[in-house]
Amino acid sequence: MEINKDLIAASSTPIVLAILAEGDSYGYAILQRVRELSGGRMEWTDGMLYPVLHRLERLGFIDARWEIAESGRRRKYYSITSQGQAQLAEERKQWQAVDATLRGIWQSLANPIAAGDVFGRPAAPLTQGA
Amino acid sequence: MPTPDQEVLLEAQIDQWRSYLRRRQAIQAVDVAELEDHLREQVAGLIDAGLATDEAFLVAVKRMGDLDTLSREFAREHSERLWKQLVVLPADSGVSRAQARTDAIVAVCLALAAAFLIKVPALFGLSLNDDAGFFARNLSFFVLPLLTGYFVWKRRLDTRTVRWLGVAFVAAAFFANIYPFGPEGHTEALTALHLPIALWLVVGIAYAGGRWSQVAGRMDFIRFSGELFIYYVLIALGGGVLLAFTLQIFMSIGIDIEPFFESWLLPCGAVGAIIIASWLVEAKQSVIENMAPVLTRLFTPLFAAVLIAFLGAMLYTGRAIDIDRDVLIAFDMLLVLVLGLLLYSVSARDPQAPPGAFDVVQIVLVVSALVANAFALWAIAARITEFGFTPNRVAGLGMNVILLVNLAWSALLYIRFQRGRAAFTDLERWQTNYLPVYAVWAAIVVIVFPPLFGYI
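^ Those are the sequences you sent over. The predicted structure of the assembly is below.
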């Protein structure tokens, strides 16, 4: 399943902030976590994560620092700031609202008779999209 | 586990990938380090999952995403970086910053030395106005040895090369000053004009360091020359504005600084600016590198249109080219210009790119310049016995023939490339191999012409 680019872009901020809220992390590990959480359904182009991280850093939602990783290489770690926490809470509210709306509509589509149109007729059977 | 061989190969591949990434202006060294860490993690993870080293590298690079898109994303996020490139000191690392500062200090000192040098003759009673001949003949020596010295220092040239460069300058100074030129003589003017051309090759050898024997090294020097020219013009424009402003405000309090300006500011600034401009080109290669190709793209079609209009008008009206004193010089300049346009589009072209519409315009330009020049040469040849061989005419004719040969062969190579029969590198090699020809001709004009024509 290919997830729409706009959806990926829109969800990248809450996902990255939420993963960093779990604990400090770095680019590769963040992507691994996304893969794990989505069961491999959300495929980001690896490189694209970094401009997102840099944008969040510029906005003050996350902090970055260079450390020496266990591999001996320098690695850039990111951590969430209090401002980022607030942003995450805000995003969470918005996504929950979207989620609740979609949930409602999915449910009514699943029970077409109960949710008939204004004249009480049952809704036309929907053909399931691919 | 990868074998040592595979490790070496992987490192080489990562090196190459890194250098590709470094060329993107929007992606800075720290970002490259971050992305490289990612790539290595990814490769290690894939090898653990059972992939061969080279496969792992390919998959990791693929997952990283298309470099153009990536650098566009970086540019969108860091648009300021493209502008920050204009600042001279790179903020990358401590070492390169210290190096850049040393560079700057050396360049400024050399520029001051050049400004001082040009005033040294004044200590011996020679003035710019009364001894214009002396200054014209020796102008090169106030700045080019210093410029050469800068590159000798920068490229750490070995003493043998330095000795040869020194010999070249001493010999040039000898020939510029030994001859008893007649007052306001033509051969003296020719020497003044051709000596810098000959010595520019010496600068080029120093610039290229040990790479003068390679096509790429000479090509870099061609790029450097063009960028230096653009920088110098920009600095001159800025200097002109500054000077006009200074003149005006001092005038308002009744002080005339024009004498000071003429005898100090102008000559010192003019020679110092060459060193400063060279240093700027060195320090900021990537910025203006985009400038010369842009200018050539802009002007190649325009010049082609003008030349075709000229040829059309000549054929339509049936008028022949009227050969007078300046026509030869005008056509030499035309060839130089067309050659410049050709050189800079060559130098900026991706050698692997297939021929395109711009290449066609380029060919039209070169061919129409050749035809126009052929008309001029024909007109001269028809009446050369009538005019006689003056030094100016011979020098102009010689330069014309040299440029013509270069341009004609370039056109041939270009057309062959366009038809897929030759590689683009052939054209590059031809252009860079031709560089010494100009210098040799210029040296002949300086050394042989004055005695040949009796120092007139």
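Chain A touches chain B at residues 26-28, 45-48, 50-51, 54-55, 58, 69, 71, 73-76 (CB under 8 Å). The longest helix of chain A spans residues 82-110.

Shout if you want it in another format.
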